[in-house]
Amino acid sequence: MTLALSVEELNFEFAHGSPALRSLSFSVQAGECVAVIGPNGAGKSTLLLHLNGILPERPGLHASGRVHVHGRLVSASEAAWVRRQVGVLFQDADDQLFCPTVGEDVAYGPEQLGVPRAEVEQRVARALAQVGLAGFQQRVPERLSGGEKKRVCLAGLLVYEPSILVLDEPSAGLDPRSRRELIEILAGLPITRVIASHDLALVAELCARTLLLDGGRLIASGPTKSLLRDDALMSAHGLECPTRDLPSHLLAP
Question: Which of 121, 152, 185, 205 is least surrounded by Cβ atoms within 10 Å, i.e. has the fewest?
């Protein structure tokens, strides 16, 4: 199989803070859907921001190690290419929506890249259809539900036609119907996905493999169902005992 992502001995420390990531190493194969779980403060979000080079560019931060996307080192010189390959979905949809209409929001990225207008319109229509929001171009983001906002943000990434999606707590704050709709969309995407989440049912349903982080370190990596059935391991790292909370069919061998 082809490697989509490779992280090698990644260390990161915020200015005047304790290390957020410690000697982190793992890889993700093309087409995999991999979960990143762990307690608050484990380093999940910090890791995700390294996967397309957002964090190391900021002044006063200390990073070492290497991240490769499709074999190319994530660096300042490769930033534009990397960010077209790796789309990041933030936890709060309002952090990504800033244009007057849905269509303008989704179109913003390719327009900045100089994509011809006719192609932009085609891409926007296709991306919105992928997330179940066909015809939403003239809608006002502020009047959308939380689930619709999340899907517009996802469309704003899919319009780039990325090869990798990195999602930070994608189901946070969604009602059951919106959560189910999002899970079905993510399950149907034929691209590499890395999902950081406290939603262990989502993790069990979508991700064949899981990485457990705590204190910035990789504690465990393996088949999702095996990790989630390990009540002692989960409890030791602030995740309670998932076998008591998850539907039994999601954890069946």
Answer: 121
